[in-house]
Every structure is written in C-alpha cells, then in structure tokens.
Design a protein that fits this description.
By secondary structure, this protein is mainly alpha-helical. The protein is built from eight helices and two strands. Strands 1-2 form a two-stranded parallel sheet.
C-alpha cells in the first residue's frame, strides 16, 4: 500500500485481517469474504477493516519481527490479540515478502491481457498459443464465416483482446506464436 499498489495490497490486507480473526481457516475464499460483507453490510465491513488497518504501523524498511514488536502493544491497547509468527520466518524485510522483486536491472510485469487493461509499458511480449477447438488461423482466415452468432462474438472478443495487448507497448511489441501460425499473423498484421 505504501508503494501505491492499493488494489493488490487491500486484497492482501483483507485476507490477512480475516486470517488474524479466523486462525483455524487455511484459506480465505471469495465466498467467505462475500458472506462477511453480507453479514456486516458493505459500509460496516469496510469500516471495521479500515479501522483495524489504520492501527497498524508503517512497514517501510522494517523486518517482520521488528514490525510485530511495534504492532503488538498497539493491538493489545485496543483489545486485540497479539500477532504471532514463527521466529525462523520473522527475520526478513517485509518488502522482500510482499513487494515486487526485480529479477534484473529491468523491472517487468507479467500478467494476463485482462490484468493490464489501461496500462502502458515500454515493451510488451505477447504469447498467442493455439486454441483447443478453434485456433487463430481459423478466426483470421479470409473464409471465416461462423454461422452461430454467439460463437462469432466470442471469436471477435478474442481478437479484441489481442488488440488490447498489442496496444500496451510504447516502443516495442513482440508477438510469440507457434511456428505454424507465424505467416498467418504476419499476413493479418500486414508484415512482409
């Protein structure tokens, strides 16, 4: 959250919040979260979640054990139980647990087409694999004529998603396809 990744951090904090209060649960599912919202109402749910989150100290440049030592008196003062963590897992910087790690000098993002809508990047590598039933070669063929309108719409939606992915880079777009589909995509994109 401190790095501006609010949506991702809120999901992590929300699951951690429920894990804290339901230590017997191994996984906090979307169904569980929906039930919690239904029981408390959206505003009440968010209010209790944010009240708890706002109690917690900053994580910047702290090891997990340092952060827990700082957080526990605050929690006890407000009537909550202490955070517990195994000592062998607590002597690590929090940013190493939750923040994006650079694997080289170049920072990169890996995700689905849906996850990058609205974002731009200097370069994009797009993987287009074969489809199980109907592949891109069929959909891109000049003779393509799907009589079933719902199937045709799904195929056009698939091509729209490819367009979304192709429009993400500022400078460089690389498309990786199976060898047998290279000429199909070259023809479609007008590349000689």
């Amino acid at each position: 959250m401190e790095k501006g990744e609010f949506r991702k951090s809120l999901k992590l904090l929300e699951r951690g919040y429920h894990k804290y209060f339901n230590s017997d649960l191994k996984y906090i599912s979307k169904t569980f979260l929906r039930k919690e919202v239904e029981q408390k109402g959206f505003r009440g749910y968010r209010s209790s979640l944010f009240s708890f989150i706002n109690l917690l100290p900053s994580t910047t440049s702290k090891k997990l054990n340092e952060w827990i030592i700082e957080a526990n008196p605050i929690l006890l003062n407000k009537g909550y139980d202490k955070f517990l963590v195994r000592n062998n897992k607590s002597n690590i910087l929090i940013k190493e647990l939750f923040h994006r790690v650079k694997t080289s000098d170049f920072q990169f993002t890996m995700g689905t087409i849906h996850s990058v809508k609205g974002q731009t990047f200097d370069a994009t590598l797009l993987f287009l694999k074969k489809k199980a039933i109907k592949n891109y070669a069929t959909v891109l063929a000049n003779t393509y004529n799907e009589p079933d309108e719902s199937k045709r719409r799904k195929d056009m939606e698939e091509l729209r998603l490819v367009y979304v992915a192709c429009s993400r880079p500022k400078r460089l777009l690389w498309i990786a396809t199976p060898v047998e589909d290279i000429n199909i995509w070259k023809n479609y994109l007008g590349i000689s």
